[in-house]
Specification:
Shape: globular
Number of strands: 34
Oligomer: single chain
Distance between the termini: 48 Å
CATH superfamily of the largest domain: YVTN repeat-like/Quinoprotein amine dehydrogenase
């Protein structure tokens, strides 16, 4: 709004800034929403820590909009607010023409020429997939787990389901499935047959009253898993005794883990990479007892949609519109990592100039980066970009001279990919489960 900026910071409310000098922004004020609905005190933030009157936080700001002399704010729990900013809040009219017509079939799914599909999900998106042989288990939020039989010549066929209150993520290690079940913690299940699971145990809460488990990572060869509630902390849980899972290490840094930003496999069979975008890059050694952080560089990777993949002994990370190869046994600072363009990418966007707060927010917008997964058997790399809705598949058999194999546009926001028999298997959000043809 002119030389002013309104920025929402969820629990910490709304900040009013003077950005007349964008390199030296100044905070002019802070508005924190109430903890409880002013008209109905029975409605409020459900977290005990935030309810504490001594904590200067309130209802998380979920959205803001600038009006003529006013600002509109919505709180997650307590409603919509109006704040008066006469002469300061000024909306900018934008004529974008007539509204587009809605398609006759809004949930069109993906191209049948590109994918075998389980079919569009009209209610709960397919957020994650775990494989056990030719069977796929998908996390479908309030629809729980769905179970599919995979075929090289036909669409994934649903053969079962597991009714859960909430399933945000699912991973497999050996004959166990681990499920991120939100406020119900982490469920640990034995795969007894293709369509039959038996609960072995549960970590009922990861972060006390704030626990809402959203993402987890499980790996072959270890009973240690990683999990996140999509806030700043990453947790490592020892599940050797599934009836008594124990958090053995937790660590925080300056960036929300609001996506699936950990490596789906371990580099060299032991190193787990975690990208924090504004907050830098972390590597943990899961072969150590207890788990040890072996690397942390707070310089931002400058990648808004990207993640990290294990590729043999290395970790492939997204880096400012391109990618870089990181050796966890001989780590290098982010700023000196060699940035590579993807095959077919003509130019890399400019890197950020320094480590200042304003530079940390200058993400190059790139349709090339994304969430990667490397398949050692086929030596192919899949990269999914949720923001630009695309999938690119590369041949990385020669890591110094990779080749672009496919570019596939997507209709919906897909999640972290994997491979089945050399083909990309993709949790396609509202497009369902997708298998590359």
């Amino acid at each position: 709004s002119g030389s002013y900026c309104f920025a929402s910071d969820t629990l910490n409310g709304l900040f009013w800034l003077d950005v007349s000098d964008p390199r030296q922004p100044k905070i002019l004020g802070n508005l924190i929403l109430p903890k409880f609905d002013p008209e109905d005190p029975a409605i409020g933030v459900p977290y005990e820590q935030i309810r504490d009157p001594a904590i200067p936080q309130g209802d998380p700001v979920s959205s803001i909009a600038v009006g003529d002399g006013v600002l509109y704010l919505s709180g997650n729990y307590t409603g919509i607010y109006l704040a008066e900013f006469p002469g300061i809040a000024q909306f900018e009219p934008r004529d974008q023409g007539a509204l587009p017509k809605l398609p006759e079939k809004p949930l069109i799914g993906e191209s049948s020429a590109d994918f075998f599909s389980s079919g569009a999900e009209r209610s709960q998106p397919t957020r994650a997939v775990a494989l056990h042989g030719d069977v796929a288990y998908t996390a479908n939020v309030w629809d729980g787990l769905k179970i599919y039989q995979l075929s090289e010549t036909d669409h994934p066929r649903q053969i079962g389901e597991v009714k859960l209150g909430y399933a945000a993520d699912v991973k497999r290690s050996g004959d166990r499935l681990y499920v991120a079940e939100g406020q119900n913690g982490i469920g640990i299940y034995q795969i007894e047959s293709d369509h039959r699971l038996r609960e072995l145990g549960r970590l009922p809460s990861l972060e006390g009253s704030r626990s809402m488990v959203q993402f987890l990572w499980a790996f072959e060869g270890t009973d240690v898993i990683a999990a996140s509630c999509a806030n700043t902390r990453i947790h490592f849980i020892d599940c050797r005794d599934p009836q008594k899972p124990v958090v053995i290490h937790s660590e925080s840094a300056g960036q929300l883990l609001y996506g699936n930003y950990g490596s789906q496999q371990l580099a060299a069979g032991r190193y787990f990479g975690l990208t924090r975008h504004c907050g830098g890059f972390m590597v943990f050694d899961l072969a150590q007892q207890p788990v040890q952080r072996v690397w942390f560089d707070s310089f931002p990777l400058c990648s808004q949609t990207g993640s990290v993949a294990a590729m043999g002994d290395e970790l492939l990370v997204m880096r400012a519109g391109g990618y870089a190869r990181f050796d966890p046994q001989h780590p290098q600072a982010t700023r000196v990592l060699l940035r590579h363009p993807f095959p077919g990418q003509k130019n890399l966007p400019a890197d950020v100039p320094d480590d200042s707060a304003i530079s940390r927010a200058l993400f190059p917008k790139s349709e090339w980066e994304g969430m990667p997964y490397y398949d050692a058997a086929s030596q192919r790399l899949a990269v999914v970009n949720r923001m630009f809705k695309n999938l690119r598949i590369y041949d990385f058999s020669d890591k110094n001279n990779p080749k672009l194999l496919k570019y596939l546009p997507l209709q919906n926001n897909a999640y972290a990919p994997t491979f089945w028999k050399g083909r990309v298997l993709l949790p396609g959000g509202y497009s369902g489960l997708l298998l590359e043809r």
